[in-house]
Amino acid sequence: MKRSWTALVLFFIGCLGAYAGQPNKTTDRHVIDGRAQGTTYHIVYYAEKTISKTAIDSILMDIDNSMSVYNKNSLISKFNLPETTSIEMDHHMQKVVNKSFAYYKLSKGQFDITVAPLVQLWGFGPARISALPDEEQIRETLKNVGMNQLKVRGKRLLKKNPKVSIDLNGIAQGYSVDVLADYLLQQGIQNFIVELGGSCVSVVKSLTENG
After folding, report:
1. Per the record, what are the reactions this protein catalyses (predicted)?
2. In sequence order, which ranges of the chain are alpha helices (DSSP H)?
3. Exposure winner among 7, 116, 174, 186, fewest CB in 10 A?
4. What is the reported pTM?
5. Residue 10, domain member (yes or no)
6. Is residue 20 in some structural domain?
7. 4, part of any domain
């Protein structure tokens, strides 16, 4: 994934807090790198125990199987099929969709997960395009955009228009980073930085404490 110099500078500034000091020198530095969600992830943590890359990849695979538009068998891909009118969400999708509705209301419609048809129309989706859209195509596609065409009923996500499809990439990577951070904390890791696709979380315990 290509990033501008400005984006890189902002990323490093945002993550700089993780390196404001050095963790307890009795702990070891560990690094886990890999690929997920069409991009890369990096984890650096200080601890006496070791976290396996397999455990991290398993967590990210579960999220991919839920919300990746590039995975034809994911829940979101199944929901985006025209013949699908509703789907039962898993806990990952349910949390992200509910949060998306909150952001949709907070932003007065500026944050909208039903932009998937527009994303694809302009060539930023899973399928390639042969030409840029004209004004008529854009107008027609906009008819299928709007979270007012979605409804959540418990664990089920329903669409009122069969042409509606969703893209959770605007929030899913940040969610994934939070899930990984929670996992590290549950494992007793208290000094770490997690980055995935530019989304970053860092936790540094007081350096005067042990453990």
Report:
1. L-threonyl-[protein] + FAD = FMN-L-threonyl-[protein] + AMP + H(+)
2. 5-15, 53-67, 75-79, 91-106, 116-121, 135-142, 169-186
3. 186
4. 0.81
5. no
6. no
7. no
